[in-house]
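To: structure subgroup
Subject: Chain for Friday's discussion

All,

I'm putting the inputs and outputs inline so they're searchable in the archive.
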Amino acid sequence: MELIRSAGRKAVAIPGDLRDEAFCQRLVEDAARELGGLDILVNNAARQRTKPAIAEISSADFDATMKTNVYAPFWLTKAAVARMGPGAVIVNTSSEQASDPSEDLVDYALTGAAVLNFTKSMAKQLAPKGIRVNAVAPGPFWTPLQVSGGATPEKLQKFGSQSPLGRPGQPAEIASLYVAAADPALSYSTGQIFGATGGGGQPA
């Protein structure tokens, strides 16, 4: 917040639970009101829990992952589109897991594939309205997902080492892809997947 404001921009914090449809609707309404409109929506929140066997994924865990990673982008997009005009952009966040899933991230990988499909279908649906929809699909990046249950301590020790670059990415190394996905200069790019996997291939 302070970094945004120090750059002379306006920032508004709207805390809440993205797993709740009513909050998602209110979030978009409040953001549009406080910021004077809505031109860009970035769906970036996610939930990831490592589970070595499907028997260990409870219905509650599965529901929480689906609500965070799939329902929330759906609800937010639905609310945002009603307020967007030509030139607006939606940027979703998928994952390399969408096309190369790990055996211990079954539910998370499933949501990555859903977001990829959602991006492509919404790009076609919204193209006549002049609204672009793209997605960023990261590979192994250091984020709060890993250290909050998304990876085991053992896996963290070698996290990202299997990528061709031999290391995980840092958040600063992917930020510009979100900027590019929303840049008006890329006005012919919609339904595109911008990958950053350290050489590990592009989700399609």
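Points worth raising on Friday:
Residues 149 and 168 are 17 Å apart (CA to CA).
The chain has a mean pLDDT of 92.

D.
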